[in-house]
Amino acid sequence: MSRRTDSLAFARKLFNERGSHAVTTNHIAQEADISVGNLYYHFRSKEEMILALFDQLDEAWRTRLNVPDPSRVTWADLRSLMAEHFAIVWEFRFFYREQITLRQNDRRLTRRWKLANQRGRDDMLSLLKSYFHCLGYAPPAPTGLDRLADACWLVADFWLVHQEMRTGPVRRKDLDLGVELFASIMRPLIASLEARCPPRERPDAH
């Protein structure tokens, strides 16, 4: 890896462990075993490093949250995507813990996060539409489908923070509960559809 990439990896590690507010560029340089001057050659400030890390997070969203065939989304696809999403959350967990403060401190980050967040929510809506279509069910009314997408996206975006507020620092496996909560949100809707049409695939089938 390049010195720049190494520095970002060490910064992410420290931010995840201590919180970005408690980490200075001196800490990062020491962890990366380089001089502060060398670090500043690649990044003008800690804020520039945070912005570069967000670009890595956005790239992970774009490249890792995909399904084999978007026109034929299965329940296994949805569960797999949610599980992969929480893997990304864990890798960049400081962003999720600190997103309000970080966005308040950097307008550039606010703009990028807003665009990425809207894209993620819209992708969730598209996946749900495709899933219901593949089941052979008419999807819920547009308002209902929008609310379902919002509920699923809230779980995806805020489950880590919710868990830490309830129980303190989370472990990686605690995020798996977010996948189960997502399934719990989906089951009642599928059950109501089953009453009208025999199901081809159920949310608890996998």
Q: Which features would summarize this protein structure in a list?
A:
206 residues, mainly alpha, 9 helices, 75% helix, elongated
Write a concise synopsis of the structure shown.
This protein is mainly alpha-helical.
Mean pLDDT: 89
Beta content comes to under 5%
How widely separated are the two ends?
A: 38 Å
Report the total helices: 9
Q: Which structural class is indicated by helix and strand composition?
A: mainly alpha
Shape verdict: elongated
**Largest sheet descriptor:** none
Which secondary structure elements does this structure contain, and how are they paired or packed?
Blueprint: H1 3-18, H2 25-32, H3 36-42, H4 46-64, H5 75-91, H6 93-105, H7 107-135, H8 142-167, H9 176-194
Helix pairs in contact: 1-2, 4-5, 4-7, 5-9, 6-7, 7-8, 8-9
Folded structure, characterized:
The protein is mainly α and 206 residues long. 75% of the residues lie in helices and 0% in strands. The protein is elongated, with a radius of gyration of 20 Å. The mean pLDDT is 89.
